[in-house]
Design a protein that fits this description.
Shape: globular
Order of helices and strands: HEHHEEEHEH
Helix content: 25-40%
Radius of gyration: 15 Å
Structural class: alpha+beta
């Protein structure tokens, strides 16, 4: 599996209990079937903005990035995208799903912060379900917006 950025820098992000390795993936086709369930699960809450094939296409076109947590097999997948606002650049977590998330999410966010800085980003953001507030608040995220939608 090839990783984004310096392999020695990003592959060194091991959890203290040595159960998971978290890394960016550039060879999407090699892992797609394994990560698909972890990508599809959160899409059931996205109000139709994305389907898995849209994310796959964006990953192949390098418009989004794929991150995995694995040990004996892939246990979780996160998809991100770099967003260029008029006055700042951020990295948005588009989907995040997997097993034992509390066992690796701290290190996953730390890895993502380091990578985001190499891309010139000044922050991370998540557009997600309300339950993420409690989990991500512990990692330094703050609840800044409410998104309201109405189908027409």
């Amino acid at each position: 599996m090839q990783v984004m950025g310096s392999p020695t820098e990003y592959l060194s992000i091991l959890l203290q209990d040595k159960k998971y390795l978290i890394t960016g993936v550039t060879e999407i086709d090699k892992v797609w079937e394994q990560v698909l369930p972890f990508i599809e699960a959160p899409l059931t809450y996205n109000n139709g903005e994305f389907e898995a094939e849209d994310i796959y296409k964006a990953l192949i076109e390098k418009k989004m990035q794929l991150w995995v947590a694995f040990n004996d097999r892939i246990r979780a997948a996160m998809v991100t995208e770099v967003v260029n606002y008029p006055r700042k650049k951020i990295v948005r977590i588009v989907t995040l799903g997997g097993e034992n998330m509390m066992g690796w999410i701290d290190d996953g966010v730390n890895l993502l912060k380091r990578w985001a800085k190499t891309q010139g980003a000044t922050g991370l953001e998540v557009i997600g379900r309300k339950g993420w507030i409690r989990t991500l608040d512990k990692l330094g995220f703050i609840h800044t917006h409410v998104v309201l939608k109405k189908e027409i």
